[in-house]
Write a structure and sequence with these properties.
357 residues; alpha/beta; TIM Barrel; 12 helices; globular; binds iron/sulfur cluster
């Protein structure tokens, strides 16, 4: 069996330090996910990124603090007003602070606070300010909210927010009620406000073409994100896109690998993330996870799923992936330590004990 010459040439160039271009990304994304070439792509991204990030991994927690039927009405989303059954609910500041404590105890260095597209700006800003005074200082507050104005971003920053996740999604405006230009404008405002911009290629489904994926990925190449990567879409029963199903973990890894090779040499990119947290992603160039729960407390069944609020576990209809689970996967994959959002080592990772050892 021989390796396709174009793939071999691109990977050789990447291993020697040349980032891929957009057309090359589309070519690599068109490789069948079960091909030898796709496996080599994932392996090359692993080799490059272990070197690039000093074999360190990053954990950033997530807490859905505000849920309601959402006017964004994305055709894939659990909260879209057209098909959701959720009732409006806010998480209490005590519960959020307690979850932040558990994330910090588990080695996370940031936490995404997630709302719907429309949210109470003043409530959220004041929540961030109160949390900043209460939660461990090493845990950065990262906003994942709807489109916001420059003045609002400045207020977030003054309240202690360090960064914001914002994406111009795949098929934005077609599978959502939002305007791609408005999404991009918010991203530019985040960067202008001096907040760290967190980005992903998402929500990836089987129907997205290589050209579409490359196009969406490239916003995070053209603009200075601190994190790139990919997130798969979980099919929500009753949602219009449910029929498409979901991508495999090797396919998700292939997209992660392309994000890694496209952002090589960009000093502002401090990590490459994959969601859902999984081992294949760690062998595809990813070094960052978004744990859904912090360090477990009590019996596993007591902390298995949240009673209030939400995380991506809600989409999977599954128990939360905790900081302990994430550390175990990173250690099993050979990562040596956890790091902070700037890439500085924070604590060693030890491999989980082998059975009988
Ligand atoms: S993805 Fe975000 S904006 Fe879209 S419906 Fe869901 S919560 Fe609303």
């Amino acid at each position: 069996m021989s390796v396709n010459g174009k793939t071999a040439g691109l990977l050789k160039d990447a291993l020697e330090g040349r980032p891929i271009e957009k057309a090359e990304a589309a070519f690599l994304l068109a490789l069948p996910e079960d091909s030898l070439e796709a496996a080599l792509l994932r392996a090359a991204a692993t080799t490059i990124n272990r070197r690039r990030f000093g074999n360190g991994g990053l954990l950033l927690g997530q807490i859905g603090v505000d849920m309601a039927p959402c006017e964004g009405d994305c055709a894939f989303c659990f909260f879209a007003k057209s098909h959701t059954t959720v009732q409006p609910a806010l998480l209490s500041v005590e519960e959020i602070a307690a979850r932040c404590e558990r994330f910090a105890r588990g080695g996370a260095r940031g936490v995404f606070l997630m709302t719907m597209h429309r949210f109470g700006f003043e409530w959220f800003r004041d929540l961030c300010a109160e949390l900043r005074a209460r939660i461990p200082p090493q845990l950065e507050i990262l906003a994942n909210v709807g489109d916001v104005a420059a003045s609002q971003l400045r207020e977030f920053k003054a309240a202690g927010v360090a960064g914001a996740y914002h994406v111009c999604r795949l098929r934005e405006g077609l599978d959502s009620c939002m305007n791609p230009a408005a999404r991009r404008a918010t991203i530019e405002r985040i960067i202008d406000a001096g907040l760290a911009w967190y980005n992903l290629c998402e929500p990836v489904g089987p129907e997205h073409t290589p050209a579409e994926l490359a196009e969406q990925l490239w916003l995070g190449v053209d603009l200075p994100c601190v994190q790139h990567g990919a997130m798969q879409r979980f099919p929500v029963p009753g949602s219009p896109l449910y029929r498409h199903g979901q991508v495999s973990l090797p396919r998700l890894g292939q997209i992660v690998a392309v994000a890694a090779l496209a952002t090589m040499g960009k000093e502002h990119v401090k990590s490459i993330a994959v969601n859902v947290s999984n081992l294949v992603g760690l062998f595809s160039g990813a070094n960052a996870f978004f744990p859904e729960g912090g360090e477990p407390e009590g019996r596993p069944e007591e902390s298995a799923s949240p009673k209030e609020g939400f995380t991506t576990a809600l989409w999977r209809q599954s128990s939360e992936i905790t900081t302990a689970d994430c550390r175990e996967m990173l250690a099993a994959a050979g990562f040596s330590h956890l790091m902070d959002t700037a890439g500085r080592p924070t604590q060693p990772l030890s491999a989980p004990p082998r059975e009988g050892a």
